[in-house]
Amino acid sequence: MNDIEKIGYLNNDFEMFHIIDRQRREFAFHYHDFNKIIIFISGNINYTIEGKNYTLKPYDIILVNAGEIHRPSILDNTTYERIIIYVSTQFLKNYSEQDYNLNYCFERAKSEHSNVLRIHSVEKSKLYQVCLELEQSFSDQAFAKELYQKILFLEFMIQLNRTAISNHINYLDSTIGNAKLVQILDYINEHLVEELTIDRIASHFYLSRYYLMHFFKEETGYTIGNYITEKRLLIAKNLVQNKTPITEACYQSGFKNYSTFYRAFKKAFHTVPKNSQLID
């Protein structure tokens, strides 16, 4: 496995998959440069996101922000079934106005320090019914198929955000697999755009450089350097999409060398940085 692995590519505003694993699989830690919604249907699963662990129940909704490292751990041979939706971060930004913000559910998940919504009887809700209609639309060849899919997807996101705003849900508490790892991840993300070296992180946590590097790789599957680079690239991508000049985006996202930034950006996103809208 590479030190860091990006899985899945999104060439549309959103994509949807219904996946059933009838045999136990192993998943590596990975990330996406788009947001991910998972409606968990069945299985015996422990889901890890950025060092936090969640034991799932049927119809839990998992919200994974772009760039968050995560993986499911399948605990036995029970069938693992889920609906997965990829959604472009830029698409959600395009539907963020004063009166509504379709990215709210992801933002609130961050503020609640929880990636999992547990909703009473979600399988009977309008949210789930719209989800099923959206899934059905992908196999439908009727008139204005793509337009209808977009309308259904927007309705799904509206229902999801209305649910997130309501007080009739629980943001699931996580169990901390390793409290030190969560502290390190939080520290890195708080200081991404600063001069951030392994020595600085090790000194802050009173750890040896070697121990920190080994510990981080063992717990996440990432090297610290690659983790920091990928997080900075996502910041840079957001800046470029919002018309920040390329050189400014480079330095504002924490890179100190433009040529290093340029090569990393091209490798990660399969395009050179330019001030036109990128595909998430």
Molecular structure report:
- This protein has 280 residues and is of the alpha+beta class.
- The chain has 2 domains: 14-175, Regulatory protein AraC (Jelly Rolls, Sandwich), CATH 2.60.120.280; 178-269, Arc Repressor Mutant, subunit A (Orthogonal Bundle).
- Helix content is 41%, strand content 18%.
- It is built from 10 helices and 10 strands.
- It has helices at residues 89-94, 104-111, 126-137, 145-165, 179-190, 198-204, 209-220, 224-241, 246-252, 258-269, and strands spanning 14-21, 35-42, 45-49, 52-55, 61-64, 70-74, 80-87, 116-119, 169-171, 175-176.
- It has a 6-stranded antiparallel beta sheet. Strands 6-3-4-10 form a 4-stranded antiparallel beta sheet, with no helix packed on it.
- A hairpin with a 2-residue loop joins strand 3 and strand 4 (52-55).
- Helix 3 packs antiparallel against helix 4, helix 8 (224-241) runs antiparallel to helix 9 (246-252) and helix 8 packs across helix 10 (258-269).
- The model has no long low-confidence stretch (mean pLDDT 87).
Summarize the structure.
The protein has helices at 89-94, 104-111, 126-137, 145-165, 179-190, 198-204, 209-220, 224-241, 246-252, 258-269; strands at residues 14-21, 35-42, 45-49, 52-55, 61-64, 70-74, 80-87, 116-119, 169-171, 175-176. By secondary structure, the chain is of the alpha+beta class.
